[in-house]
Design a protein that fits this description.
single chain, mainly beta
């Protein structure tokens, strides 16, 4: 019998600052993992059998494993010699090494196997069931009792079970068994029986079932026995796969009729208030998940309808751990059909009130951040099959056995273990980006990281190379759900450039690498099109300006619905659909798409909008909603697709496909950018192309299901004028989704704003630089990798730039100088550094203190109170002064009247963002 030890409480106090330039989160003292998860996901070195482990139990810091195998070997990469182990091995819970206890479970004919193990309440006896005829030569009949202290079979305990025993449970005086047998000691006992725990004598308990028993547990009060298996009746009462019977007589207490006929119960476990089943099935309508039930009246409290053959359940400290190969948790609002997830954790009870039933069942409590990986392995390809918790030296260990041959991507067969301390795995590196559509605001966003045993991570945002974070943000993520997190920097200045990097840290302090640098130049004026999309309420806005795969940033105001690229669409395609530097994404029309990062539902009112350019004659989906991610969706609508001829179709499903199409000759596969919007709301459906209405339809409803937004492809099976390809070949840009129906005026405004003038940013790096040093008055420093500024004793820095002319129809709207302080101690300065024009001549090769050039007296800008630490520093410059010298070679000097030197990198340095540069923003006159 397995019982939890009570829910561990955790108190988390957090304070967050947003929109102020500073964010603060006070995190709890670091622990190994995020409570209530009790174990890390880091597999520990463990000796490994050469077959399959079906059963485990533990006592006094020793773990017993039984199954079908003949030997155990050391962990991969660890020295040692393989040892004989005939279907059984005892291991030290803390080291994973075999103990001196050796037992061989054998049979004269056929293949022996151990299928179940349980330890007596006094921790002195190990009971083993399976199919075997002897233990270390002592005759038995598929059930044996082992003295744990001496590691010897108890010869006097030999009840006759003529067929496989698959489950055991024990009280102080009774051992209950489940299996394939129809008689025990010559008396009828069909699939379930009870014997005296000391003598093995058959007890009067009768719970006869018509099909095999696979699991058996005793309720904590000892009054009832929980039966699981394949059966359809117990003692003549109709009950499938699960039943509750009296612990003394076997009389039926509770029957169940709501487990599908093609599903069975593989495991049962209890805690202080409930019991839990692990279920497996085959065929359509199968139930493969877990059920949580109340001990008070044996009623169902929730049902987890994930698909994927649950083999074991184990409640511990308020968390239900399970082994399965769960591959589809769509019915739980979690991951869709796809890869297998072998080890999961979820709460045993809902937090607060349970949700309303869906399809007659209450959904299961949320899943937690514990996700070691495994594989199908050998045998039936089930993966993990059994779990047990052992303790030694105040450390608890989760042991897992089964058919797997790899854990966390590394070779490890049949056995593994995870400790309650010693989390050493760092989160994955965040994928970050940054954008700005108006002065005074930069939106930093990143795809949340994945940590196998921490769902709540702390993110630190670093600006301009500083070693001190400018903000700290806490966000949650799971292996299958890594939504975007974001933070808005409101301390930025128009016309200046900024860089950002992000790290992720788990509760144990393990920290990821810094993300790649994301950079942005803050516009000098509002960017009309993207600002309007945000102002009109988009809660998904993909601009496709991303520089790395597989992340597509969401630029909406707080929507945080990023995209995940599939099969590497082409990035940063130019020119994009709207004026300005924004880019598009290219799709190959055969396999590439983008889907949204988390499952959601769509309100009855919504709009979908995108720009596209193509010459395809195979059609494809531009945007739509579907219930899967990388695989074809089974439910899919709220979509805009192109036919082979280039017509556009907007459609929903409300029992049948309801669509609006452009005219027979109204085609858009002409290799030009086009704008398309589909809306649905109380007024019905509407389709717009290039700002013009293309039709309406009085349909106000659509299919309701949870799913994901798709761009570039997904299923189109069964839809009118279905194109040859589900996937779109061409470029897509500026995709947005709104939780309301846009008006015709709003749609037309978006189309018109795409042509609105946009700022142009030029970053001009220095073409020559040097500094002079009064202490070495005849030395030229043009080849130096760092530059200095100080009043006394004097350093002056000179920078030369080739300034571009203003683009046609534009003027200079802002200018700034950007430099980066070096890594040396004291590189910052408390003094004010002035930026002035150089009016004399100079060169890096020959200019010294003795022949330094003359300088202008009117500062164009200043750096003040530059902190120590290597970071990018920026100051605005006099726009009028620089406007007068556009299109020429122009020199700036950095000077000071103080005594505290500032050191910056030169253009010769190889440091990141080292070269001094001007940031010039041009806009409409």
């Amino acid at each position: 019998m397995r019982r939890s030890r009570g829910l561990t409480a955790a108190l988390v106090l957090s304070l967050a600052g947003a929109g102020t330039g500073i964010g603060l989160v006070l995190m709890p003292e670091a622990s190994a993992i995020t409570p209530p998860v009790a174990f890390t996901a880091d597999g520990l070195p463990t000796w490994q059998p050469n077959g399959v482990v079906f059963a485990m139990a533990q006592a006094g810091g020793t773990v017993f494993a039984g199954g079908t195998f003949s030997a155990v070997r050391p962990p991969d990469g660890v020295g040692g010699t393989e040892q004989e182990a005939v279907n059984f091995v005892a291991l030290d819970a803390a080291t994973g090494n075999p103990t001196s206890c050796k037992l061989a479970f054998t049979i004269g004919d056929g293949s022996a196997t151990v299928r179940t193990l349980v330890v007596s309440k006094d921790q002195k006896t190990l009971y083993a069931g399976g199919y075997f005829g002897a233990v270390n030569g002592t005759p038995v009949s598929s059930l044996a009792a082992i003295d744990i202290e001496t590691c010897t079979p108890k010869a006097a305990f030999h009840p006759g079970f003529p067929a496989t025993v698959r489950g055991l449970a024990v009280t102080d005086d009774t051992l209950y068994a489940a299996g394939d047998f129809s008689a025990v000691e010559g008396q009828t006992r069909e699939r379930f029986a009870a014997v005296d725990a000391t003598s093995g004598a058959l007890k009067p308990f009768v719970a006869n079932a018509d099909e095999p028993g696979r699991a058996i547990e005793v309720t904590p009060d000892g009054k009832n026995v929980l039966l699981g298996g394949d059966f359809f009746s117990v003692n003549g009462a109709n009950t499938h796969a699960l039943a509750v019977v009296n612990a003394t007589t076997g009389a039926v207490t509770k029957t169940y009729a709501n487990i599908p006929s093609n599903s069975v119960v593989k495991d049962i476990a209890t805690d202080s208030t409930g019991f839990y089943t692990g279920n497996e099935g085959s065929g359509g309508g199968v139930f493969d998940g877990r059920i949580g039930l109340n001990l008070s009246d044996f009623s169902e409290k929730w049902r987890d309808r994930c698909l994927g053959a649950t083999q074991a359940v184990l409640p511990y400290d308020g968390v239900l751990y399970s082994s399965s190969h769960a591959h589809d948790c769509s019915l739980e609002g979690q991951f869709p059909d796809g890869k297998r997830n072998f080890l999961l954790a979820q709460l045993t009870n809902h937090e607060g009130a349970a949700p309303a039933p869906v399809d007659g069942f209450v959904r299961s409590p949320r899943k937690l951040g514990w996700h070691p990986t495994a594989n199908d392995g050998i045998g039936e390809g089930i993966g993990p099959r059994v779990m047990s918790i052992a303790e030694k030296n105040d450390v608890k260990y989760m042991w897992v056995g089964g058919e797997f041959t790899a854990i966390n991507g590394k070779p490890q067969q049949a056995l593994t273990r995870f400790a309650s301390t010693g989390d050493v795995g760092a989160p994955t590196t965040p994928v970050a980006s940054v954008g700005s559509v108006k002065p005074g605001e930069a939106q930093v966003r990143w795809r949340t990281s994945y940590d196998a045993d921490d769902s709540k991570l702390t993110y630190r945002i670093y600006r301009n190379g500083s070693a001190t974070p400018i903000a700290t943000v806490a966000a949650e993520s799971l292996e299958w759900e890594r939504p975007q997190a974001s933070w808005v920097d409101t301390t930025v200045k128009a016309g200046q450039s900024y860089t950002y990097r992000v790290t992720a840290t788990d509760a144990a302090g393990n920290t990821s690498a810094l993300s790649a640098t994301a950079s942005v130049t803050i516009p000098a004026s509002v960017q009309s099109y993207p600002n309007q999309v945000r102002a009109d309420g988009a809660n998904l806005y993909w601009r496709y300006d991303d520089t790395v795969s597989p992340y597509v940033a969401d630029s909406s105001d707080g929507g945080n619905t990023s995209g995940i690229q599939v099969n590497a669409p082409a990035l940063r395609q130019t020119p994009g659909a709207i004026s300005g530097p924004s880019t598009a994404m290219g799709f190959n029309g055969t396999s590439q798409q983008v889907y949204s990062d988390h499952r959601q539902t769509v309100t009855s009112s919504y709009s979908i909008e995108t720009w596209f350019k193509t010459g395809t004659t195979r059609g494809g989906k531009l945007i739509g909603f579907g219930n899967n991610t990388t695989r074809n969706s089974g439910s899919f609508d709220k979509q805009i697709y192109m036919t082979n001829s280039g017509r556009l179709v907007f459609g929903v499903y409300n029992g049948s496909a309801r669509t609006i199409s452009t005219g027979l000759l109204d085609t858009f596969n002409d290799n030009k950018w086009h704008h398309v919007v589909g809306t649905q709301g109380p007024a019905g459906m509407a389709l717009y192309v290039d700002g013009q209405s293309k039709g309406t339809l009085n349909v106000t409803d659509s299919a309701q299901y949870a799913g994901f937004w798709h761009v570039g492809g997904d299923n189109l099976s069964g839809w009118p004028t279905r194109p040859t390809s589900n996937f779109f070949a061409g470029q897509i840009d500026e995709t947005a989704v709104y939780p309301k129906a846009l008006s015709a005026a709003q749609v037309k405004n978006h189309y018109d704003l795409a042509k609105a003038p946009s700022d142009t940013v030029s970053k001009v790096s220095a073409t020559e630089d040097t500094y002079i040093n009064q202490g070495a008055p005849s030395t030229a420093n043009g080849a130096a990798t760092s530059l200095a500024v100080r009043g006394t004793s004097a350093y002056e820095t000179y920078l030369r730039f080739n300034l571009p002319a203003a683009p046609a129809g534009q003027v200079l709207k802002s200018a700034s100088l950007q430099v980066k302080t070096t890594t040396q101690t004291g590189a910052g300065t408390a003094d004010t550094v002035s930026v002035v024009p150089v009016t004399g001549t100079w060169s890096g090769a020959s200019t010294t203190f003795n022949n330094k050039p003359t300088l202008g007296t009117t500062p164009l800008g200043t750096f003040a109170n530059v902190p120590d630490g290597s970071a990018v520093q920026s100051t605005p410059l006099d726009t009028a002064a620089l406007s007068a010298v556009l299109g020429s070679s122009y020199s700036l000097a950095l000077t000071s009247t103080g005594t505290d030197a500032m050191w910056i990198w030169s253009m010769e340095s190889t440091a990141t963002d080292a070269a001094p540069q001007l940031v010039l923003t041009f806009g409409a006159k």
